[in-house]
Design a protein that fits this description.
Layout: H1 3-56, E1 61-68, E2 71-77, E3 82-86, E4 92-96, H2 97-140
Antiparallel strand pairs: 1-2, 3-4
């Protein structure tokens, strides 16, 4: 192989290697995002379960309320049918149990969609990486 072709081949290999590194970093970020989505889904599931339990509790049941920094105070639940929901910018709106559960279901559904998109992106990037690796192998075998 002439010197000029060899140099050009090396430059192409370096460029492909750079692309692989970029794809690897993107895959790593998408994996982190996927794990966060999984954690959120788990939180929603647990919260929905806790809401079901609250719905079945008798009035004036005792509970521990989180007052911050991992500190809890004993409290009595006088109404397990209405909740305050943070709708953003520290604005809270009173919602019924049914509305809260509906909101959680909607948010979980949105997370499912995002999770599907993340998985598709990861598959696409993996396929691109395989193509680049195959091209690199061809270049090395010249």
């Amino acid at each position: 192989m002439p010197k000029q072709e060899k140099k050009q081949n090396e430059e192409q290999l370096q460029q492909m290697y750079g692309q692989l590194q970029y794809i690897d970093s993107q895959l790593s970020e998408l994996d982190k995002e996927s794990k966060i989505i999984g954690q959120k889904k788990e939180e929603f599931s647990k919260l929905n379960s806790e809401l079901d339990k609250l719905n079945k509790t008798k009035k004036s049941a005792k509970a521990f309320a989180n007052i911050g920094a991992g500190i809890f105070a004993q409290a009595k639940i006088s109404n397990a049918k209405e909740f305050l929901v943070n709708v953003g910018a520290n604005t809270y709106v009173k919602k019924s149990l049914k509305d809260v559960q509906s909101l959680l279901k909607k948010q979980a559904s949105e997370l499912e969609k995002v999770e599907g998109q993340v998985q598709q992106n990861m598959q696409m990037l993996s396929m691109q990486a395989q193509i680049i690796q195959a091209e690199m192998q061809k270049s090395l075998n010249l």
